[in-house]
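Re: that backbone. Tokens:
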């Protein structure tokens, strides 16, 4: 049963509340300049509990997890605006459902807006409602502007910071991810938990400050060993620098700390599996598939898609796995929440040879691209998303030259589909494979040039060396 009283032994707070929890939660939030418009102290506690679990990437079973705390917030104060903002906002940023298709989610957004308009709430809370509504319409840039407006006056508002971080990630806005955190760091006091290290480290590594990113992440782990996002950042650094042995050793040594973070564990196992693929063309990714089917979380789903696609390009037969994964991805065919998700769903339908599903996904995206409105992802569909989908279709049909013609002009714009450098590297590999397999001599030369470029960026990468040997064999 959900506890009605939460103390410091249960929650390691990410919000800047006073350590002496004899002070009411309501008063503590107000003292930090983050007033919550509710008369319910219990609703504030539950809001705090949700935020804590969100930032820690971990459902706390003793509290009923995030879902249990959301129910408790609603029971404590059904009209608590920020309770609705965080619950609906979390569902939106999960990208597992579209407000175009899910009337329940769309209704939750409208309900939050109506509650805000009917109450005397703070300007900060109104900006939160505005940002959530903008995000629900796919207007990620404007939503981020609203969250940044909050942080300008309230730099310790962790919900605004984390929501903005996630939205920047979906847009591939690397510098914004980094700078958004850098701007608020001076305002965080020593008594506040430093889960900011993982956020800042991730922005640093995505902007190629690898050594600084690793240093910041390790400082975070020294303070909070179960900071799964800092572990994740170090894994990225090792991946981008092709420090495979170091990455393997690090992930193994920290496994007991991060495997309990149920919302990120599968992704960290994915990173661990990438080291194995790079090193010896093998996989230790069973946890990724098991967790993907169990959780239904979008991050877990796209990781499983990516893992299979990489293995298939590397010559591993994964035919039966595609059929398993199709049962998870097919219900999301019409969502079109992010281009990144769409591309990964297409991998599965192509791998499973589900021509109808592949056609439906592409045609749906083409239709939305005609009148995208304020939806930032749909605005990019025509120039980036659809050509990338078409390139994958051509590759699947053995039309390697056409794959190159579609992908090569986009290689410096692929960042706009979102995700991380490590995740998007899949499409760099696709371009290289297509260039090597093309009958066009110019494409073959391009493939060798791309491998030389890759080797310069990631020296000593076994995967690159394998591809170089393959390119030489094809040339002979």
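Recovered sequence:
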């Amino acid at each position: 049963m959900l506890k009605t009283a939460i103390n410091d032994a249960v929650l390691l707070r990410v919000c800047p509340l006073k350590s002496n929890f004899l002070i009411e939660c309501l008063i503590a939030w107000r003292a930090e300049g983050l007033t919550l418009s509710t008369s319910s102290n219990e609703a504030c506690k539950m809001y705090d509990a949700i935020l804590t679990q969100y930032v820690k990437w971990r459902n706390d079973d003793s509290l009923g997890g995030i879902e249990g705390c959301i129910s408790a917030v609603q029971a404590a104060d059904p009209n608590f605006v920020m309770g609705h903002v965080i619950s609906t906002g979390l569902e939106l940023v999960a990208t597992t459902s579209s407000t175009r298709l899910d009337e329940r989610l769309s209704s939750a957004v409208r309900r939050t807006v109506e509650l805000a308009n009917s109450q005397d709430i703070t300007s900060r809370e109104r900006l939160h409602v505005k940002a959530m509504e903008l995000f629900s319409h796919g207007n990620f840039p404007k939503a981020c502007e609203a969250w940044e407006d909050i942080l300008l006056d309230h730099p310790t508002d962790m919900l605004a910071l984390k929501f903005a971080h996630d939205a920047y990630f979906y847009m591939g806005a690397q510098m914004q991810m980094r700078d958004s955190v850098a701007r608020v760091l001076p305002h965080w006091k020593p008594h506040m938990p430093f889960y900011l290290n993982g956020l800042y480290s991730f922005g640093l590594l995505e902007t190629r400050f690898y050594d600084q990113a690793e240093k910041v992440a390790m400082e975070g782990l020294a303070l909070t060993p179960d900071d799964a996002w800092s572990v994740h950042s170090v894994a990225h650094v090792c991946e981008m620098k092709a420090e495979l042995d170091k990455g393997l050793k690090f992930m193994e040594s920290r496994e007991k700390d991060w495997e309990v973070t149920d919302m990120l564990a599968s992704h960290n196992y994915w990173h661990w599996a990438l080291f194995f693929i790079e090193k010896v063309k093998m996989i230790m990714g069973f946890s990724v598939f098991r967790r993907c089917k169990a959780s239904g979380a979008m991050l877990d789903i796209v990781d499983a898609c990516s893992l299979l696609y990489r293995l298939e390009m590397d010559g591993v037969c994964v035919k039966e796995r595609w059929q398993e994964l199709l049962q998870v991805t097919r219900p999301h065919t019409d969502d079109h929440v992010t281009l990144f998700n769409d591309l990964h769903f297409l991998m599965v339908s192509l791998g499973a040879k589900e021509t109808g599903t592949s056609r439906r996904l592409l045609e749906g995206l083409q239709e939305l691209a005609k009148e995208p409105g304020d939806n930032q992802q749909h605005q990019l569909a025509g120039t980036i998303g659809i050509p990338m989908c078409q390139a994958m279709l051509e590759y699947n049909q053995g039309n390697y030259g056409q794959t190159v013609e579609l992908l090569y002009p986009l290689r410096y714009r692929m960042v706009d589909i979102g995700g991380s450098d490590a995740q998007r590297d899949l499409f760099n590999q696709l371009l290289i494979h297509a260039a090597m397999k093309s009958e066009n001599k110019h494409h073959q030369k391009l493939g060798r040039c791309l491998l030389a470029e890759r080797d310069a960026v990631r020296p000593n990468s076994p995967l690159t060396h394998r591809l170089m040997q393959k390119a030489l064999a094809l040339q002979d």
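The first helix runs from residue 25 to 31. The CA atoms of residues 93 and 289 lie 22 Å apart.
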